[in-house]
Amino acid sequence: MMTALFIVSLLVFGYLVYVLIKPEKF
């Protein structure tokens, strides 16, 4: 359970960073 939560948090964090950095190219 703890591992799944950690993975989800990592994915959300990565997605946020991706969204913040991507607009520059958009």
TrEMBL record:
Any one GO cellular component localisation term in the record: plasma membrane
Molecular function per GO: P-type potassium transmembrane transporter activity
InterPro entries: KdpF (IPR011726)
Name the record gives this protein: K(+)-transporting ATPase subunit F
Organism phylogeny: Bacteria, Pseudomonadati, Bacteroidota, Flavobacteriia, Flavobacteriales
Gene name of this polypeptide: kdpF
